[in-house]
Design brief:
Elements: H1 2-10, E1 22-24, E2 30-32, H2 36-52, H3 55-64, E3 69-72, E4 82-85, H4 89-97, E5 105-107, E6 110-116, E7 122-128, E8 136-138, H5 148-160, E9 182-184, E10 192-196, E11 202-206, H6 209-212, E12 221-223, H7 224-238, H8 241-285, H9 291-320, H10 328-346, H11 352-362, E13 363-370, E14 376-383, E15 388-394, H12 399-402, H13 407-416, H14 422-431, H15 444-454, H16 468-475, H17 479-487, E16 493-494, E17 503-504, H18 508-520
Parallel strand pairs: 9-13
Antiparallel strand pairs: 1-2, 3-4, 5-8, 6-7, 10-11, 11-12, 13-14, 14-15, 16-17
Helix pairs in contact: 2-3, 8-9, 8-10, 14-15, 16-17
């Protein structure tokens, strides 16, 4: 019995209660409900959702306009009759999730899961299966209220509306125009909006992905105003009539290449439909009593149906990867919108929420790459047609960070401190045309401040050898003798700069040689010891 039920469902002939808006005719075919008021109510649900983008918005639309919604009763004296009442949020969600409104025949969309808990109780609950696991899917089985593409867009919008997920969500109140559209360039998570300042007038985009992983720090934090201004300026520039005409012309050339591939797909589907219809005709012509042949022909027909369904699914996946194909009316409307968009965007009557909806129609997401103490911000902009480009913005740094010397200046001071004094370093940097962050010339005090902040030792701190006095005391000779050793090359000594003391390096071998020299020489005058 289950096998016969499934075979009947594969042919699209298995009858079950239809969703509101549909009815069976005298021949058992699924048709639109003959009541025009019912059809109008269903179409109002889809049109209101397209306009507002949320299920609660549809409920609000019906409530504000005093509209009722039908519900078909099952069982009892009201069985099969329509009952009009208030539209609820759950009804809207169920309608948007029902693929039957696309004209498709679906069987096996739900599965009853059964299990036994530790107490021995039998528990079962119904789960909705993904499209790949549906047992039967026959598109264009009956008239539809919406297309399959609109159905998938509605599901995507419902998924984005969930506030407990890292997704864009619908356009909400607030001055941050890109709320929900910005992604962190470091961890890939959606960035949130935090309103700072007195009264929350300064929004910032920030990512707290590191907090969730145990690190008490944010990935990225950038002011929202500069990002919004950069994206808005780019959108206004792209939406110029000349730019759009060029983009449409390029799109037409690319679509011609896709049409050749699409033509091959359609021919393959046409042949698969012919073979399926041929197998059906052969099955219908066999005598019912000849069960041996009938079973073989029915199996062949089911096999062709499965092949056709698989090809159709592959073709649908192929179409999802194709570029958007504007009609001539779409092109005319786009060019007309390009002339009006700057005026609409800059109008004082246009609210932030309306600007957000405009951006969501054009932009898929924006990835932000920003460093904590760097003014440059890279923005990876992905449009709704999946084209990607990179733009740049400049953020203002905190006063303390803005007054800090650049890493290049600090590294130059670190290198020069090995051979120059502070005054010499300042003169060298000024001659090279470098200036402090405030635009002033370098001084000895500014060089000392750089060394202090970055723990750079001064030139005098780098000498670890002995002075002339220290050598004279060690060998108990006069300082003139030490100068004699230096000038005649007996001792190796260096000066870091003119006027600086001698830096003398003495190893163990040299110390032994000098002590023997002192002991053997009778001309050396030993220093007095007190």
């Amino acid at each position: 019995m289950l096998g016969g039920k499934k075979n009947k469902a594969k042919k699209g002939e298995l009858r079950f209660p239809l969703p509101v808006g549909y009815a069976y005719d005298a021949d058992g075919q699924t048709v639109l409900d003959p009541d025009e008021e019912v059809q109008a109510a269903i179409r109002n649900v889809f049109s209101a959702f397209k306009a507002c983008g949320s299920a609660y918005g549809v409920v609000q639309f019906f409530a504000l306009n005093g509209l009722r919604f039908p519900k078909r009763a099952y069982g009892g004296v009201w069985a099969g009759k329509l009952v009009w009442g208030t539209l609820t949020h759950s009804r809207v969600v169920s309608i948007l999730h029902n693929p039957g409104y696309t004209g498709a025949y679906i069987f096996g969309r739900y599965h009853d899961q059964k299990r036994v808990d530790p107490q021995g109780l039998f528990i079962h609950h119904t789960v909705q299966l993904p499209k790949e696991q549906w047992q039967v899917f026959i598109p264009d089985h009956h008239p539809g209220y919406i297309t399959w593409e609109v159905y998938e867009e509605n599901l995507k919008q419902l998924q984005n509306n969930r506030t407990n997920l890292e997704v864009s969500g619908p356009a909400r109140e607030g001055t941050a125009l890109l709320q929900g559209l910005v992604l962190c360039g470091k961890c890939g998570r959606h960035m949130t909006v935090r309103y700072t300042g007195n009264g929350g007038i300064s929004p910032v985009y920030e990512c707290k992905g590191r907090w969730e992983h145990g690190t008490r720090a944010t990935c990225t934090t950038v002011p929202a105003l500069i990002i919004d201004q950069a994206i808005a300026a780019r959108v206004i520039h792209v939406m110029q009539p000349a730019e759009l005409e060029l983009a449409i012309e390029i799109m037409d050339k690319l679509l011609k290449e896709e049409n050749e591939a699409d033509k091959g797909w359609k021919l393959t589907l046409e042949r698969a439909r012919y073979e399926t219809e041929r197998a059906e005709r052969q099955y219908q012509q066999v005598e019912p009593e000849n069960r041996l042949v009938a079973r073989t022909l029915e199996a062949r027909w089911n096999e062709k149906l499965s092949e056709l369904e698989e090809l159709q699914n592959e073709y649908e996946q192929y179409r999802l990867r194709q570029s958007w194909r504007p009609t001539q009316q779409d092109k005319t409307e786009i060019l007309a919108l390009a002339k009006e968009l700057p005026r609409i965007w800059g109008a004082t009557t246009t609210t932030a929420k309306e600007r957000k909806r405009i951006l969501r129609m054009l932009i898929e997401d924006i990835t932000i790459f920003a460093e904590a103490r760097q003014p440059d911000v890279r923005l990876g902009l992905r449009w709704q047609n999946h084209c990607v480009e990179e733009i740049h913005a400049t953020k203002s740094l905190p006063k303390g960070t803005a007054r800090k010397h650049t890493p290049q200046t600090v590294e130059s001071v670190r290198t020069l401190s090995g051979t120059m004094t502070d005054s010499q370093i300042a003169a060298h940097l000024n001659e090279a045309g470098l200036r402090t962050p405030e635009g002033r010339v370098f001084t000895v005090d500014s060089i000392k401040w750089i060394r202090y902040l970055n723990h750079i030792p001064a030139l005098s701190d780098r000498h670890k050898g002995l002075t002339v006095k220290e050598v004279a005391e060690r060998f108990e000779v006069g300082q003139d003798t030490v100068y004699y050793w230096i000038y005649h090359g007996i001792l190796h000594a260096e000066k870091a700069a003119p006027g600086w003391p001698w830096d003398i390096q003495i190893d163990k071998q040299k110390e032994v040689e000098l002590r023997e020299w002192v002991q053997k020489s009778g001309h050396l005058v030993k220093s007095k010891t007190w």
